[in-house]
Amino acid sequence: MKSSILRVETVRGDKYEKYLLKCKKELDKWFGVSVDIPRVLFVQSRKEYDKIVGYKTEAWQVGNSGNGVIYILDPKIYTKESDHKDIKRFWLVLKHEYVHLYWHQMTASWNPRWLNEGLACYLAGQEKKAPSQEVVIDVRKYFGHGGMFVYGLGYFWVNYLVKKFGKTKLLNLIKSVDADVTNKKFEAKFKRIYGFGLDKKSLARIMN
Ligand SMILES: [Zn+2]
């Protein structure tokens, strides 16, 4: 593979690092663990972004993270190469990706996707409109499944769980996730902590 295809830029000691330091202070406190400030690689086009993630991405996909690195569309081309019309959202995406690095350090997993994405949106302040109740109660489907809905659905449940039961329970749930997590194992832990299951019937009941 020709690595020269990826024109990426690493930025240190500037406004990006300052912002990430601010995020770090807040997130270290929230999670109770410390995660090093990631390297940020500014991707110069949609085409290069596709090459980095390894598939054809959609216009709303602008950032990715793993192994202490965040890949994100360069602010210079951010609105041009995505359907995000507001550059302010760039900063929220940067924080969102940083939250994923905390999640991954604590769990060594990317699943359940809905909780991982919901938490990243919630802590980054990316308020999402809740999808219909029909989608929201179908949370089991989003254990290892991404797509557009996972963000709104995940945001809804994280916001709900924190508001209704507090942060400590949610942190305990996150800490129970490990590399061998399955839908079944996760649901058993969830039920022990919250007292209700993740089946549609139980979720519809607590929503109404
Ligand atoms: Zn994400």
UniProtKB/TrEMBL annotation:
Record key words, sorted: Membrane, Transmembrane, Transmembrane helix
User: What stretches pass through the bilayer?
Assistant: 142-162
UniProt xrefs under InterPro entries:
Peptidase_M4/M1_CTD_sf (IPR027268)
> Which Gene3D superfamilies has this protein been placed in?
Neutral Protease Domain 2
Protein name in the entry: Peptidase MA-like domain-containing protein
Lineage of this protein's species? Bacteria, Bacteria division Kazan-3B-28
